Amino acid sequence: MDSNNLLQMLLLRGLGTTTLVADRLHYVSQEWVQSGRLDPRHAQALVDDVLRALRGESPGLELEAERQLERNRDQLLQDLGLARQRELDELRGRIDRLEQVQRMQQSRAEIPD
Q1: Rounded distance between C-alpha atoms, residue 93 and residue 26, angstroms
Q2: Tally of CB atoms within 10 A around 77
Q3: What's the mean pLDDT in 66-79?
Q4: Minimal CA–CA distance to 43: which of 28, 56, 53?
Q5: SS3 string of 73-85?
Q6: Using an 8 Å Cβ cutoff, are 29 and 47 in contact?
Q7: What does the angle CA 14 – CA 19 – CA 20 come to, to the nearest 5 degrees?
Q8: Is residue 54 within 8 Å of residue 68, measured between CB atoms?
Q9: 15-43: string of b/e by CB count within 10 Å (b at 16+)?
Q10: What is the pLDDT of residues 43-57, one digit of tens each?
Q11: Which tens digit of pLDDT belongs to each residue from 14-32?
């Protein structure tokens, strides 16, 4: 499958999903207003806040979602028993230091007294 076509399909699905969510949100908020569960003055603010978040116009919400995603990823890696890149880098550093100490000890052992 052409990667441009795949990207186009994903974008269109994302737009369609966003539109569907916006329509449903408008409907539900009006239902809540009619049933008295939501103040009419707050209904539009609720819709606007959610739509801003969907469009990525809420940096605080976006940062929180990113943090949550990182926590979930870290937990998944831990559950799978996989190391993160930082952990691998630390281990490589420790191995390099141990190899250096071993070479120094070998070179001292080769020098006659």
Answers
A1: 56
A2: 13
A3: 82
A4: 28
A5: HHHHHHHHCCCCH
A6: yes
A7: 95
A8: no
A9: eeeeeeeeeebeeebeebbeeeebeeeeb
A10: 888 777 777 777 766
A11: 666 667 777 787 788 888 8
